[in-house]
Amino acid sequence: MDPEYTPVEMQQMLNEVYADRNRLAHLCAALALKAGLTAGVGVDPDEPDWPVLYTQLPTGQVGWHVPLVELIPGLPPYDMRWDGHTNEEKADRIRRFVLSLASPGPSVNDGPGSSSVDDRGYNAAMEKVRRTIQCRFDEMTTAFVDYRERQAVLRKLSIVARDLGLSLTDTWHNG
Questions:
Q1: Whose CA, among 96, 132, 136, 146, lies 20 to 30 Å from 79?
Q2: What is the strand order of the sheet 38-42 is part of?
Q3: Is 61 exposed, middle or buried (0-12, 13-18, 19+ CB in 10 A)?
């Protein structure tokens, strides 16, 4: 763990990342519905406080558990069952779907490792995503460092003000 951050600060940062992820899962479902795809809120009987936001992409089902308290109302119920996909399969389904939208070449039905999927296009898209994430992380880090620096300056100012206040008080009473 980075010694610059306290466990509480690290947890707050992690909570912010998950909150963003949960909003993106909502966005995915809402945009899918607008595009005429099937999407909605499903129930996980093992996790009743964590509904699942499902989207049925042409490449297969994807879904994300979100805390019940963060569920944004308005999405329809999702009546299909979980198809058993793993996180790796979900990532591949999303990758293939995005590729099918981003370039005219590959079909959404091309499987993993298919020779018709343009790896250079995928790698370029992934590099753009990586750069975007890195930029967002850098912005968050800068904001956090700025916050910590401001906190340090405020602590120093409060000490100076306290010391100055004491010396002014002493001068007033003894002068």
A1: 96
A2: 38-42, 52-57, 60-65
A3: buried
pTM of the shown model: 0.57
Beta carbons of 37 and 57 less than 8 angstroms apart: yes
Contact between residue 70 and residue 19 where contact means Cβ atoms under 8 Å apart = yes
Residue 112 identity: P
CA atoms of 23 and 11, how far apart (whole Å): 18
**Which helix (H) or strand (E) element contains residue 88?**
helix 87-102
DSSP letter assigned to residue 82 = P
Q: What is the pLDDT of residues 83-101, one digit of tens each?
A: 999 999 999 999 998 888 8
Query: Which residues are CB-contacts of 96 (< 8 A; sequence separation ≥ 6)?
Result: 59, 106, 108, 110, 112, 117
Q: What is the structure's pLDDT at 102?
A: 76
Q: Are 67 and 49 in contact (CB under 8 A)?
A: yes
